[in-house]
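Hi team, as promised in this morning's meeting, here are the two structures we talked about. I've kept the exact order from the run log so nobody has to guess. The first one is mostly here for context; it's the second one we should focus on when we meet again. Sequence first, then the predicted C-alpha cells.
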Amino acid sequence: MRFTDKNFWRYVLCLWPLLFIFFLGQGMMRLNGNAAELGVTATLSLIDTAVFLLCFIAAAWWTYLPLQQALLNSDQPEQHRKLYENILSEFPWRALKSYWVAGWAFAIYLIIIIPTVAVLNDHLFSWPMFVTLILNFSFAAGILAPTLAVTLSIVFATKLRLKLSKFGLFHGVLSDEHNHKHITSSTHRPWLVFLVTGIIPTLILSLYVWLAHDSNEAEAAFILSQAIVLLLMSVTASLVLVWHITQTLKTVTATLETGLHHLTNGQFEGRVPILLDDDFGELARGLNTAMQGLQEREDLKDSLALAAEIQQGLLPKHEPMIPFYNLKGFQETCYAVGGDYYDYIKLEDGRIWLVIADVSGKGYPAALTMANLQAILRGLSIVNWPIEEAANYLNEALCDTLAAGRFVTLFMAKLQPESHSMVWINAGHVPPLLLNTSASGEHHLEALEASSPPLGLIKNMHYEVARSEFMVGDTLLAYTDGVTESSSCAGNDMFGEKRLRAWFKEHADEPVSSLPDTLLHDLNSFGRSDQDDDLTLLCVKREK
C-alpha cells in the first residue's frame, strides 16, 4: 500500500459540511433580503466564498502537513509506528489551533468588509445591526466552523487509524503526551456540542431580542432575519455534529465488540485498534492488555505442559526387576513442575541406588535444581562411587550452584540384594520409615533419622553412612514432607508423622504396588488440596 498526496484532498473533501453551512447562511441572507439591505452583491459573495475557502483550505493544509510528509515518505507504515501514533494523537489539537485561527480570521474579514460595503453604498446600517452582524459572524465563523472542522478532523483521523491498524499500528499505545481529553473525551463531547449549538446560540438570540426591543421596524426585521439565519445554521450544525459523532462511536464500539467477541471465544491473538485518545481508547488498550496477558498465559501453559512432560521423563519409567524385592515410586506436584525427585539407579554389580530428594521452593527454580541433581547422580552412578563420596560430591556441586538460602534434602541408599542389607545417608530429609514384621506378626517401625544437614548449605561436609538389614516382609517407606504436611479439610490440622506411622502399620500387609494409591486416597479424604506441597513416595519391600 502506498499513500500519496491524494489523501490530503480526501481530508479536504471530508470537510464539506463547512462549505454547506457557509452556503446555507449566505443563501438565507439573500432569501430574507439582508444581503440586499447591506449592499452585498453576487461578486462580493463570490469573493467571500474565495476568502472562506482560502482560510479553511490553508488551515487544513497546516493541520495535515505532518501527516502528509509521513505518508509520502513511507511505503511501510509498520516501520514508522511511533511517528504515525504521535502525529495522529496530535491531530485534533493541531486542528483546533489551525481552524480557530482560520475561523476568526474569516470572521474579522466579514466584520470589516460587510459593514464597510453597507456604509459606502449608503445603505441602512445602525449600531444594533452592526452588533447583530458581529455576533452572527463571530459565532458562525469563529465558533461553529472550528467546532465542525475539529469534529470532522477527528472522524478522518479515526478512519485513518482503522486503516493503519491493518499494519499493526494503534493496538497498544495511547499517547499520554498528546492526550487532549478536553477535545476528545467521550464525557466532554456532549457538553461541547450542547455549548456550541445550544447555550451560545440561545444567549445570542436573547441579545437579539433585547436589541430588537428598542429598535425601529426596519432594524427589528433585520435582527429577526439574522436570528433565523443563526438558528438555522446552529440546528444544521448540531445535526451534522451528532451524526458524525454517532457514526464514529458506532465504529469504535463495533471494534470493541469484536475484541470482546475474540476474548469470549478464546481468540487471544487478536487486537483492538485504538481509534480515539479518550476513555474508549483506554478501554481498547485494556482489552489489548488483557488479550496479550491471556495469550502469554496460554503460551506459558504450553511451556509448563512441555516442562512437566520433560520432568516426568527424568523420573523412572518403570520399577527395576530385583530378586526378592518389589519397588514402587509415585509423585504428584502441586504445580505443573516441582522440586521433588525420586529414582532407582541400577549399578553394574546388581546393586541399586534408591534416591528421594526435596528441593527447597516450588515451580521452575526447584524443577531446574531437580534436573541438575538427576544429571549428576546418573553420571556418578557410572563410576559406582560409594554413596558417601557421591553425597560429598553432590554437596560441593550444589554449594557452588544454588542461590543463597536454597538447599536440597536427600535420602540416598544402596540396596544390596545379595546380603539383604542397605547402606544409607540422610542429609536433612524427613526420616523414611522401615517397617519390621516379627515372626509373631507384630510390627515395629524404625525411623531412619537425618545425621547431617541438607546439601548445598555447608561446603566441605563429609557424609557418613548407616546400615539397615532387610528381613522377609520388611517394608521401607521413603517420602517427602508433602505427605505429613497435607492439610485437613478444615485447614487447621496436618496429617503429621504420627498419623503416617499408624497408617503404615495398618497397611503393612498390603502389596507394595498399592501403597501409594492407598495413601493418596486417604490423604485426599483427610483434606489434601492442590495448594499443598509436592508429594513423592518411594516404597521397597522384601518378599522372600
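And here is the second protein, the one for discussion:
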Amino acid sequence: MRFAPLFGAIVLGTVLGSQDVAVEGPAVWGLLGGTALTWLWLEFRGSSWAQGLFWVVVVAGAFLRAELAFQEVQWSTEPYQGVAIQVSQIEEAGSSLRVLGDYPPMGVKVAVHLAPDEEVEIGDTVVFSGLVGTPPEAPNPGVFCYKTYLAARGAAGVCWPDQYVVRRGAGPPILARIRSYFARNIQESLSNPGLVLSLVLGDRSQLSNEQSERWRALGTGHLLAISGTHLGLLALVVGVVLSRSSLGRLGRFVVLQAILGGYVLLVGARPSTLRAFLAGLAGGWAGVRRRQASGLEIWALVGCLLLLVEPRLVRDISFQLSFGAAGGILLWGPLLRFSRVRPALRWVLSSLAVSAAAQLSIMPLVLQHFGSFPLLGTAATLIMLPFVTVLLGGGILIGLGAGALGIAPLLEMLLGVLEIIEVGLVKWAVAWQPMRIGVDVWLLWCFFIYSGWRLRQPQITRPRMTLRRLSIGALCVAVVFSLPPQWKYPLEVTALNVGQGDCLFILTPSNQTILIDGGGDSLYWQERGRNVGLERVVPYLKHRGVEKLDLVILSHPHEDHLFGLLAVLENFPVGMVLDNGQGTDSPSYEKYLTLLAEKGIHPHPVQAGDEMALEGGVRLRFLHPHRSTLEYLSHNDASVVVALDFQRSTMLFTGDLEAVGLLELLQRIGPNALKADVVKVPHHGSRSSLDPRLYEAVDPAWALICVGPNSFGHPHGEVLAHLEEQGIPWRTTSNGPVSFYSIFGFVWVRCGEGFRNGQGIN
C-alpha cells in the first residue's frame, strides 16, 4: 500500500475535525459505519467505486477521531478539593513556580502555580485545592498564548491554588536523574551553557533572548529542535562503536534503537524527535530484512501513526514544521545529487539545495505562524551546521562525564566563534513579511510540491510530458502572480479583542492599512499600568507585518476608543489621521494631540458627505456626523460613521451612536445609502443604541459587536434578541478577533482559530 496519499487523507480529515464544528455524534457514527460497510461490500464485489469510497471512509474516520480528541475538558465551576498530582515537570514562571503533573480522574495533565521559593522536585506529590480551568488563550494573534504554551507541554488545565501541600516522593525517576546529570555536567563545564543545553537536551531556558532572536531571524531555529540531525549524529557514533562488536545485524539494530529510544525519552519525546526516531526505526528494520524502503513512504507511515494516536499534533507547530521540512527533503532529495560536479562543490551544492527544499516546503507554515520568512535561512544553515554538529557531539560527551578530556575549552572557543558569526550574519538577515498569505503563495507552494513529485518519477511519466505539464504549471503561477491585487486578495476587516472597546484593522487588497479606533482601558486600569494598546494592538500589528498605517480613524475621543491609539501612534508611522473634530479635556486626548504634533500630522475632521478613494477600487464614505448638528451632539452621538465599499459589498461602522445620533442619521440618510453586508452594532450592543429601523435600513448579512467583559451589561439581551428575531447572525470579540473578508461581492467570516457557523456564537 502507498502511504503518502493515505497520510494526506488522514491530515485532511484531522484538520477538518480540529475545527470548531458541531456534529451530531450518533448520526455521524452511523453514517460512517454504513459507508464503511458499503465500501467493504463494493470491495468484495470488485466494484470500481470501492477505491473512491475508501478515501471517503479514511477522511471521515480521521475527522471523527479528531472531533473526539479536540473536545475541550469540562472543568467544574466549583473549586476542587484535595487534588493530588505527581510532579513531572518544573518551570519558573515569573513570580511563581509552575509544576506539571497528571490528574488521573480527568486523564489530562494539569499545571499548578506554587510560591516561587517552594522546594519541590520531580517525583514529589502536590496536593492542592482551588479552581482548575482551561488555560487562557491569546486575545489576538501575536500575543503570548498560555493555552498553546501549556498544550505543547501536554497540559490541558491550570490552577492557582488556594492552598497546597508538597509531599516528598522517593526521588525523581531514572530518566529525570539522567537528564539532571547531563545538565549539571554541561553547566559545570561551560561558562555559557545555554546553546549546548538546547542542542543536547532541548532545554532553552538558559538560551538568552538575544541569541534566540538571532537564530530565528537567520532562519536557523530549526537546528535547535532535536530531530533527525541529532539522532543521525548519535546513530553514526554508536553505529561505529557497534560495528566493531561481535553482534550480528539484528543485535546491532536492537542495541542502536534502544540507545536512540532512550535519548528520545531523555529529551522529552517531542514531535520532531519522535518523527525522526520512528522513521529511523522503520528504515533500520528494512535494512535488517534486506529490503528496499522508500524514505517518502516511511515518512508518510510515521505521520499516519502519530496522527491516529494523537490527532492534536496536527496543531502542533513542531509537528508541522518537522514533518513539512522532512517531507520536502525526501521529495526532492533524489533530484539534488549533482553527480556531474566535483565532490567538494557537489557537497556544497547538495547541502544548499537540500536546505532550500526544506525551507520552501514549510514556507506557508512559517508565514502563518511567525508572519515572516527568513530568506537567509538556506545559506545560514549551511554555515552553522558544522558548528552545531561539533557542539552537539561535544555536548553529549560532556554530559556523559567526559569533561576532563579537554573538550570544554574547544567548545568554549567554538561558541565564541559562532557568536561572532551570528552577529555578523544577522546584519544581513532579510525576511519576507507579507501581511497575508494569498492564493499566489499557496499556488507557488503547490507547484513546488507537484514539481518534486513529477520529476522523481521518470519511470512513470515521459520526460516530454513532464516538461509540458511543468511548463503549463509555471505559466499558471506566473499569470496568477501578475493579476491585479483586487482579483487575488480579499478585503479584510478584523475586529480585535481589546476588551470593552473598539479596534478594527482593515487591510485592502493593495496592502493599504487602516485602523479604526484603538481600544482602551478605563482610568481605573490605566492607573494600574494596564495598556491595551501595548499589550494587544501593537503586538497584533507587528505580527501582521505592518510597518506603517496609511490611515487612522478615531470615531470619537472616549477612552475605550482613543487610549489604545496612543501606543499605536508611538510605535508606527501614520500617513493620515481622521476624526470628528470634537475635542475633550482628558489626559489621553491631550497626549493624542501631542503625539500628532510630534509626528507632524494634522488631524482632518470628516463630516457626512466626505469620501475617500483607495487603491484597487476600495472606497470610504463618511455618513456622520453632519456639520449642522455636530455641536449639539454628545461624543457618542457624534461618532464617525463610515461605510467601506469594495466591489459589490459594503461594511458599515457605526462607532458608539446612541438614540439621538441614530435618529439624526436615519432621517438624513436614505435607506439605500445604509445597505450593508456587515454592520458594527453601535455602542457595544447597549440598550440605548437599539433602534430597529437601523437594521431594517441596513439589512445586514452579519452583525459585529465589539465587546469584552464589562460591568455595563453589554451586549444587552434585547439587542441580541432583536438580531436573532431578524435572522441576523452576530459575532462578538469576547473570545478573540473576528475577521470579515470580501471579494467579488462574497462575504465570509472567520472567528479566532477557525471558521464557525450558526447564529449567536460569541
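Starting points for discussion:
Residues 753-762 have pLDDT under 50 and may be disordered.
The chain has five domains: 3-69, 80-172, 176-432, 439-483, 487-751.
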